[in-house]
Amino acid sequence: MSRAQLQQIALIAFLLLFALVWTLTRKLPETASLQTPPPVLLPKAVTPPEEKPEATPPAVPLEKETPVARNPFELPKLLKEVWQQKELARERQEQERLEREQESRDSQKAVPEQPPPSLELQGILWTAREPKAIINRQIVSVGDSLPGNVEVTSITKDRVRVSYPGGNIELTLPQKSSGSRSRESEEGTP
User: Fold this and answer.
1) Do 151 and 101 form a contact (C-beta atoms < 8 A)?
2) Residue 168, pLDDT above cutoff 80
3) Sheet of strand 132-135, all strands in order from the earlier edge strand to the far edge
4) Local structure of residue 183 (DSSP, 8 states)
5) Longest Cα separation, the chain
6) Mapping DSSP to helix (H, G, I), strand (E, B) and coil, where does residue 153 land?
7) For the purposes of burial, counting CB atoms within 10 Å of the CB of 160, is it exposed (0-12), middle (13-18) or buried (19 or more)?
8) Is the pTM of this model over 0.90?
9) What is the CATH code of the structural domain delimited by 121-172?
10) How far apart are CA 123 and CA 132, in angstroms?
11) Domain spans of the chain, in order of start
């Protein structure tokens, strides 16, 4: 069965139960108990004496009291107080959150922005599994840290991205000019 069919069956069962309870409560008077005493049988010859209605005491006029009708849409006093306390607590929490955000913004403004660190990309050792880069004569991988609170965030075939507290930097390999000799040929290695 699908979820919608189960929901329909549950709704129908609820309505049937509600109808049953409603009809049972409508048939029983509110003052009757569930167990009624057996009726008292009197002999036919004996008739009970007629009761004279007792005289009701004269009505004493009360001070002018106006009947108080309860508003069905108004919350009881205790619930109102609880609700108001919760609202106050929410307002305090929101105020504290706004103050913390303001403090963090102020503290960020108070910290002077750090200048980018001096980094030199000297080479990239590219492999698909684990690329490495040479920065300031140090071999690093993605996630490694360098002096100055610098972290390597990504390495591609032609560039390396690093982050530091003041921002992000993208390092690229220096372009070799066609007229200049390479470093290997300068050192005399073939």
Assistant:
1) no
2) yes
3) 121-125, 132-135, 138-140
4) H
5) 145
6) strand
7) buried
8) no
9) 2.30.30
10) 9
11) 121-172
